[in-house]
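anyone seen this seq b4? input:
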Amino acid sequence: GANLKVAHSDGHCRSRAFPLWKQPEKLAEAIREIIDGWLPCQALAITMTGELADCFSTKAEGVARILDSVEEVAGLCGPVLWQTAGEFVPIDVAREFWQLTAASNWHALATFVGRAAQEDGALLIDIGSTTTDIIPLEHGRPVSVGMNDRERLESGELGYCGVRRTPLCALASEIRFRGQSTRLAAEV
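predicted toks r here
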């Protein structure tokens, strides 16, 4: 929801800030720009987050609108989307089972990182601009208690505390300032 990131099988990658909540109508254009020079391609593999951005009334609407933008850009590249069921699916399946498509980025990362933790258990901690994911891995697979944002928030595996978009008031109600305890305003 705050950044677009792409990587090519040739090893190149790109990242750029994109505040989806401010300009959802420009998502397709932003995707097109960040993958410029890499189309056409054999496949476009996608993970999703951003469906909870304030510009969408519901998570289902967010998934649908993001998929619309992907479809607009992907053309004949055959987009496939990662789902928390642990597989890539075509865009029509991603639409039908949108609950598994929503916020699938954490699961895709954990599945990829799990390749390096095949033998023993491991803990993946991913601190992003908005959230922090804490994902247990066993035998190379994510074994989270929660599988969606609500369940992951309840289990403590997802926290809305990141390095860029977390307001100070979300971390503390007061700070020491000029030798005095000062209450914080609930502002960014």
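Helices lie at 27-34, 59-74, 91-96, 98-101, 105-113, 149-155. DSSP finds six helices and eleven strands in the chain. kinda curious what u guys think
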